[in-house]
């Protein structure tokens, strides 16, 4: 017999009754039933119930077992009584009567329990991640992630894509986040960068004549953490295609992503109609460029009803250039109690509150508008607003005003909260939307023009578009949103050097700087570059949605904490003096 096991802890069935077996695994739980000991023995594959009574030579050893001790047991497989069968376990029809027990790996007292799903502080869980990963929920999430990655690879190969690996140590590239820099020992004073994405390399692969590329790519960005974003590294499905337009990329990636959600979504409905929503429309209707379409609420501009009206706050506001008033419809939200809750929500977001109108039944049986705004506007204007928003008795509308870029984000969060509170958001399904027509440029706080998205994208209209106002230029850039999260970002690339130089010039990069920072790509484009485009899908975020988790750290095997620290391995750590001398570096004292 094998030194450690003849079967795994998920193998044994009723047909194995009467056989002698050897199992190895972790002691999940020990139960003493008055002279009969039961041990739930766990390994990667499942759980088997092991028992010993006072007649068993293994009894004394089993009495001393501590949770999470690694043991080997020899024993005989027995059928359980019909009344004791556990239908929740694949091995629930049998148990193993232990005749011998050997401790392979003793366990100290646990800093957190593995049995059950008790809510322990995240710092403890991350410091002892190897224990945390033994818990069923997290173990299942990591296995789901592995299956998702395997399925992605199969689906990409089935579409005639070829997998290549691109460098990890490379040069800095403007991808919208801070680089992780790596000092060079052989070239003192110079630094490599960990890639924020394989952007330039995958474009060079197209120039080199490989038609369809993909990889499961590690990416590194020094970013502030969020619940849906790792602060250091993440993995993405990275792909690029030659001789394609935007719709070709959509047609290629939709069956991959849709198939994943159908395969691993646990039977939840997966929307097959993926609308194209222009970026400007998405901000207007949803207050975000990653809308949750499970929520049917769409915001609308209602400025004309307030311009010159008796509601002085908005009327005066609209006299300023670039301002508007938007309404958030709230079907079934027509109660003062709900309006007060939403006012409290707005105040928690840093606003003085949100104006509202409630529509209710009047004494004469008609529908009337109520609230301070309704009183100031009058019957005619409030009725016009109700008609525009398609609301009825028992409904409400909430209002925000000012410069859209200053209130859109709060309006989007308010829309989400209203949909959740009123039960309008359709849970337990997946709805997707392509967000298209992103602006190429934006104005920074200091008034300069900079790229707003991927700097390597082709502007719509080519060189001619770049000769006008940069803020009017749209790019062939696109994101895929699902249930309020961005899953994919991509673009049709700028493969013409003259357009590339002009695009970077508008963002403040002279031709000499472009040649210096992206010389390899510029050089390649001068030797026959095909039109090409692609995208990247965030694997961590996809798995987070499939696993129905709210925090991305629940689907990453060894994540950092909120301060970008690895509490288990002790990173980041201070280098030794010898390492610093090799690199010819010294650190400044802390301020």
TrEMBL record:
Ranges of biased composition (kind: Basic and acidic residues): 579-591
Region of interest: Disordered: 570-591
Enzyme class at the top of the EC tree: ligase
Compartment(s) where it occurs, according to its Swiss-Prot or TrEMBL record: Cytoplasm
SUPFAM superfamilies (UniProt xref): Class II aaRS and biotin synthetases, GAD domain-like, Nucleic acid-binding proteins
Residues bound to L-aspartate: 175, 221, 453, 493
A molecular-function term among this protein's GO annotations: aspartate-tRNA ligase activity
Site (Important for tRNA non-discrimination): 33
Span of domain Aminoacyl-transfer RNA synthetases class-II family profile: 144-559
Recorded superkingdom: Bacteria
PROSITE patterns referenced in this protein's UniProt entry, alphabetically: AA_TRNA_LIGASE_II
Listed Gene3D superfamilies: Bira Bifunctional Protein, Domain 2, GAD-like domain, Nucleic acid-binding proteins
EC identifiers of the protein: 6.1.1.23
Example GO BP: aspartyl-tRNA aminoacylation
GO CC annotation, single: cytoplasm
Catalytic activity as recorded in UniProt: tRNA(Asx) + L-aspartate + ATP = L-aspartyl-tRNA(Asx) + AMP + diphosphate
Function: Aspartyl-tRNA synthetase with relaxed tRNA specificity since it is able to aspartylate not only its cognate tRNA(Asp) but also tRNA(Asn). Reaction proceeds in two steps: L-aspartate is first activated by ATP to form Asp-AMP and then transferred to the acceptor end of tRNA(Asp/Asn).
PANTHER family referenced in this protein's UniProt entry, alphabetically: ASPARTATE--TRNA LIGASE, MITOCHONDRIAL, ASPARTYL/LYSYL-TRNA SYNTHETASE
Protein family membership: Belongs to the class-II aminoacyl-tRNA synthetase family. Type 1 subfamily.
Name this polypeptide is given: Aspartate--tRNA(Asp/Asn) ligase
Gene name, Swiss-Prot/TrEMBL: aspS
């Amino acid at each position: 017999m094998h030194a450690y096991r003849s079967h795994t802890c998920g193998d044994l069935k009723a047909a194995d009754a009467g056989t002698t077996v050897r199992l190895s695994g972790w002691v999940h739980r020990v139960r003493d039933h008055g002279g009969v000991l039961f041990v739930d023995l766990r390994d990667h594959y499942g759980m088997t119930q092991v028992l010993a009574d006072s007649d068993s030579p293994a009894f004394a050893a089993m009495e001393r077992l501590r949770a999470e001790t690694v043991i080997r047991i020899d024993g005989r497989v027995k059928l359980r009584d019909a009344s004791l069968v556990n239908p929740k376990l694949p091995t629930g029809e049998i148990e193993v009567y232990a005749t011998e027990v050997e401790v392979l790996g003793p366990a100290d007292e646990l800093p957190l329990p593995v049995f059950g799903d008790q809510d322990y502080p995240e710092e403890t869980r991350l410091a002892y991640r190897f224990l945390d990963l033994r818990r069923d929920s997290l173990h299942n999430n990591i296995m789901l992630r592995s299956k998702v990655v395997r399925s992605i690879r199969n689906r990409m190969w089935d579409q005639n894509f070829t997998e290549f690996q691109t460098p990890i140590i490379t040069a800095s590239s403007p991808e919208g986040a801070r680089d992780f820099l790596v000092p060079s020992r052989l070239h003192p004073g110079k630094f490599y960068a960990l890639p924020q994405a394989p952007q330039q390399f995958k474009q060079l692969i197209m120039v080199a004549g490989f038609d369809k590329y993909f990889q499961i790519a590690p990416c590194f960005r020094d970013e502030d953490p969020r619940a849906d974003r790792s602060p250091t590294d993440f993995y993405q499905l990275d792909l690029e295609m030659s001789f394609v337009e935007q719709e070709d990329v959509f047609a290629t990636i939709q069956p991959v992503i849709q198939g994943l959600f159908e395969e691993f979504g646990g039977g939840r409905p997966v929307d097959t109609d993926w609308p194209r929503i222009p970026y400007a429309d998405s901000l207007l209707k949803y207050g975000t460029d990653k809308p949750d379409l499970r929520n049917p609420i769409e915001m609308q501009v209602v400025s004309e009803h307030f311009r010159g009206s008796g509601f002085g706050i908005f009327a005066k506001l609209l006299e300023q250039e670039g301002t508007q008033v938007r309404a958030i419809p709230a079907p079934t939200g027509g109660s003062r109690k709900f309006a007060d809750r939403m006012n409290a929500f707005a105040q928690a977001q840093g606003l003085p509150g949100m104006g509202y109108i409630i529509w209710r039944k009047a004494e004469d049986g008609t529908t009337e508008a109520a609230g301070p705004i309704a009183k100031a506007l009058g019957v005619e204007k409030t009725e016009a607003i109700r008609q525009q928003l398609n609301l009825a008795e028992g409904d409400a509308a909430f209002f925000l005003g000012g410069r859209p870029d200053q209130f859109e984000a709060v309006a989007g969060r308010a829309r989400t909260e209203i949909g959740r509170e009123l039960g309008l958001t359709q849970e337990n399904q997946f709805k997707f939307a392509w967000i298209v027509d992103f602006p190429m440029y934006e104005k920074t706080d200091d008034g300069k023009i900079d790229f707003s998205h991927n700097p390597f994208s082709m502007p719509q209209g080519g060189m001619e578009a770049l000769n006008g106002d940069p803020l009017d230029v749209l790019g062939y850039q696109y994101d895929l949103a699902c249930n309020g999260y961005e899953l994919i970002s991509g673009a049709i690339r700028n493969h013409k050097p003259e357009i590339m130089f002009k695009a970077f010039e508008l963002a403040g990069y002279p031709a000499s700087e472009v040649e210096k920072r992206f010389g390899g790509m510029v050089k390649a484009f001068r030797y026959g570059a095909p039109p090409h485009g692609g995208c990247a899908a965030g694997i961590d975020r996809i798995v987070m949605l499939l696993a129905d988790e709210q925090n991305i750290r629940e689907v990453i095997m060894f994540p950092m904490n909120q301060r970008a620290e690895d509490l288990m391995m002790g990173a980041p750590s201070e280098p030794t003096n010898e390492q610093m001398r090799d690199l010819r570096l010294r650190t400044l004292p802390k301020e």
